[in-house]
Specification:
alpha/beta; D-Maltodextrin-Binding Protein, domain 2; 6-stranded mixed sheet; 14 helices; 11 strands; 47% helix; 18% strand; disordered N terminus
């Protein structure tokens, strides 16, 4: 009787130990799977972008199921502006964001940690709109007032535009206002010109009954829209980063081969008219790449920000913010950055 009791006790002890070990192992495996994205349950990656044509590749990949086909679970959020997307990336709200290089250069100067994975697209979509009753030529802007958005690259683009037209920026009165108010400021005569982009170009045309002069503000220099992530994801989630890049490349192919379908997808997703999409579309080049020109532009942008804010700017460190290995592994011909 005593022997049977001891055996039963030993069995209970061994069973209890095995149960505890099993629970611990399950916990460790589940934690590892969540961190690495391995295991049966896919990690869901969160992508943040702003709601305009610059998000075309993300929209197409999401709407056509290219992320899913690549083996990814993705949640895409479209925000009104790209201004706060990097802050939300650092805070963990997003795992990947699509942002202009100017904001990336700004955050590099601020000592933020991030990794650039690719250029998503380039564009020439910023315009100077002039009231012909005030000014007929950009060379005559001295003593005039120009309305711009205070955030982002608008002032950087305007400064270069003025200098190339022989105008000292110090002689121009810059008025800072939210972009949605700029067309009304121009139409009311509060300013002689504004620097803006679609859909506000079309809005200004309507308000001014077509009595408006329009010229491209970028004068041949592209604005780069970048795919950016946290350093930890870039380092630890390589296979999933490559899956993401492949999905976006498939979207690029569709944009090139079926532009009308792609435009319709963007129009429907953003709830804007096809006319507005068409207006901006022609100024874009959609291709995943990492060109040397990206570093050149970011050096120019960073130098301008440093001069404005009276800060030091270490141009040599810019290269370290770019992780070219993932894109190079699958599309080496699209990586021309000197390394």
């Amino acid at each position: 009787m005593g022997r049977k009791f001891r055996k039963k006790q030993e069995y209970r002890v061994r069973y209890g130990i095995n149960l505890v070990l099993g629970i611990v192992c399950f916990f460790l495996v589940s934690c590892f799977s969540r961190e690495t994205g391995s295991g049966n349950d896919k990690r869901t990656y969160r992508i943040g972008s702003n709601s305009n044509v610059k998000a075309t590749q993300v929209i197409v990949a999401d709407e056509k199921g290219f992320f899913h086909d690549a083996g990814l679970s993705v949640d895409v959020t479209m925000e009104t502006t790209a201004l706060h997307l990097l802050d939300e990336l650092y805070a963990g709200t997003y795992d990947f964001v699509c942002v202009p290089s100017f904001l990336v250069a700004r955050d590099y100067l601020a000592g933020k940690s991030f990794r650039i994975l690719a250029v998503m697209n380039r564009n020439q979509s910023r315009y100077v709109l002039m009231n012909p009753d005030h000014v007929e030529n950009p060379a005559d802007f001295a003593g005039k007032s120009i309305g711009i958005n205070p955030d982002g690259a608008a002032e950087f683009v305007l400064t270069r535009f003025l200098v190339l037209h022989g105008v000292n920026p110090a002689t121009v009165a810059i008025r800072y206002h939210a972009e949605e108010t700029l067309p009304e400021m121009l139409a009311s005569g509060d300013v002689s010109a504004i620097l803006t982009w679609p859909p506000y170009v079309q809005e200004a045309r309507i308000l001014m009954d077509g009595n408006i002069l329009v010229t491209n503000a970028q004068m041949g220099v592209d604005i780069y829209w970048l795919l950016v992530t946290r350093e930890q994801i870039s380092r630890n989630q390589g296979p999933d980063v490559i899956r993401l890049l492949r999905a976006l490349d498939v979207a690029d192919a569709m944009i090139f081969e079926k532009p009308e379908e792609a435009k319709n997808l963007v129009s429907d997703r953003l709830s804007v008219s096809r006319e507005l999409v068409d207006e901006e579309w022609e100024s874009f080049s959609f291709i995943l790449e990492l060109p040397q020109s990206l570093l050149v532009v970011m050096e120019q942008q960073g130098s301008w920000i440093a001069l404005r804010d009276k800060r030091e700017f270490n141009t040599a460190g810019l290269f370290s913010t770019i992780n070219y290995h993932h894109l190079e592994a699958i599309f080496p011909e699209q990586v021309s950055i000197i390394r």
